[in-house]
Structure prediction request, 229 residues.
Amino acid sequence: MNELEKGLAAEGLSLRRYPVSGEPSPEVVDRIAASLEADVVVAIGGGSAIDAGKAVAAMAEEGGSIVDYLEEVGTKPPTGRRRFLVAVPTTAGTGSEATANAVISRVGASGFKKSLRHEGYIPDIALIDPELALDCPPAVTAASGLDAITQLLEGFVSTGGNPLTDALGRSGLATAGRSFSRAVHEGDLIARSAMAYAAYLSGVILAIAGLGIVHGIASPLGGAYPVPH
Prediction:
C-alpha cells in the first residue's frame, strides 16, 4: 500500500483508506458511501472487501440506505449507476471480481444476508495477482478455496447453465482439484495462481448460471449467526 500511495502521489492523486472487516453490514456501507468523495473505488482484499467496495461505489451514486435496494428486503430497484470500480482480490474464493452482486449481512434475530445486484456492478477492472495471496493463512485459503469449488460445482449442475459455463466449470474444477490441497498446505505461487484462476471462473459462472441450494442455505444461516460464508 505504501508503494501504491507513493505512485498515486507522484501523479497528483490522493488516496483515502476505508478498512472493513468481515462481511459488510448496511451500516458500514452507508457510512462510507455518505462520506465518499473519490471518483474511483479500489477494493483490495477478500470477497467481502470487494463486495463492500461494490456496494460503496453504487450507494455513493444511489443515495439513501443500501437496505432499500437489497433483494427481498428493499423496495427500490438499483439503477446500476456507480463510481468507477477496480477489484483486487487477495484471496481465491468468491470470484467477486467477476460478479454482478455484493453480499450484505446484518446478523441477529431479525438479521439477513442479501445481495445488492445489477449487471452494472461488475467491476470495470479486475487485477488478479496471485502474489497478493502468498501470505494468506491456510485456514482462510481452505475456506476461500472451498467456496470457489462449491460455486464451480453448483454452476456446473445449474439449470441456468449453458455449454460455455459447462466448459468453464470443467476447467475450473479440474484446476482446483489439482491445486487446492497444495495451495492450503504449501501456498506456493503455482498453486495460488491455479486457485486464482478457478475462483475467477467460479465468479463468471455464478454471474451467468446462478448457484444452488447450498448457497441458498448460506443466506439464512449468515443472517442469524456470525458464520463464515
In short: The first helix runs from residue 2 to 10. The longest strand covers residues 40-45. Residues 17 and 75 are 31 Å apart (CA to CA). Helices lie at 2-10, 26-35, 47-62, 138-157, 163-185, 189-209, 213-224.
